Structures are given as structure tokens and as C-alpha cells.
Amino acid sequence: MDKILTDFGIQPVYLAAQVVNFVILLLILKKFLYKPILTVLENRKQTVSENIAKAKQIQTTLESTEQQSAEAIKEASKQAKSILDKASNRANKIIADAHEKAQTDIELMIENGKQNISVEREMMKNEMREELAGLVIMGLQTVAGKTFEQQDHDKIVEQAVNNLKEKI
Q: Are 160 and 132 spatial neighbours (Cβ–Cβ below 8 Å)?
């Protein structure tokens, strides 16, 4: 083995010193470098796991909020439809009431017109009777050549009116 060591140019004292130096370096690195790096890595791992948990919680909250939002939108849609239906029904009722009132007003105007026509017809009949009676009296006075008394006048008018009523 000494021959192999000398062939490769390895001296046992230097090899032992290098092994000791390497062990000392490992102990120093373990104490001052390896532990802080592991601590940083562990902290980072813990931070990542906390962030993942927070992300899951945020995702759950987001899904819950989206579900509540969808339900609120559905409820608002139902309320809007209900309001529109009520408004449509009210509008139809108002239109129907307006048509009914217009129909009633038209019928009332027609009835008033008929009554006015009837009243005017009666007034015209009375005027025609009076005029006709006057003309009959004047004709009789002219034919008979005498003036009639009020009694005779009323009697002749009444007979003329009765004759006209029978003809009409």
C-alpha cells in the first residue's frame, strides 16, 4: 500500500491533515452554515404551507361568495320579474278601467243625447201644436168671419191637438 501511495504521490501525513481539516470544515459548515440554511428552508416551507392554506381558505370563501352572489342574482331576478308582472297587471287593469270608463262615458253621452233629442222633439211638437192651433184659429176666424172667445179657442185647440195625436 505504501507503494500505491507513493506511486500516486500521496503522503500519509498530508492525507491525515486533509482529513482532519475536512472534518473541521464539515463541523464548522454544519454549525454555522448548514443549520441556518435548514432553518431558512424550514421557515420557507412553513410559509409556503401557510400560504397554501390561506389560498385554500380564500378559494373556499370565493366559492361561497360566488354562490351567495348567484343566489342573490336569482332572487333579484325573481323580484324583478314579480315587479314587472305586477306592473303589467296594474297597467292592464288601468287600461281596462279606462276602456270601461270610456264606454260608460260614451253610453252616458248617448243617453243624454237621446234625452236632449226627446226633450227638443217634445218642445218642437208643442211649438208646432201651438202654431198649428193658432193657424187653425186664424183659418176658422177667417172662414167664419168672427172672433172666438177664449173658451171656444181652447176647445178648438184641444180638438186639433187630439186629431194630430191620433195621426202621429
A: yes
What distance, in Å, lies between the first and last C-alpha atoms of the chain?
165
Cβ atoms of 159 and 136 within 8 Å: the answer is no
Within 13 A of 93's CA, how many CA atoms are on the CB side?
6
* Maximum CA extent, the chain: 193
Distances (CA, A) of 79 to 67, 72, 91, 165: 18, 10, 18, 72
What is residue 44's DSSP assignment?
A: H
Task: Summarize pLDDT for 75-127 with one digit per residue, the tens.
Answer: 999 999 999 999 999 999 999 999 999 999 999 999 999 999 999 998 998 88
Angle at 49 between CA 43 and CA 55, to 5 degrees: 135
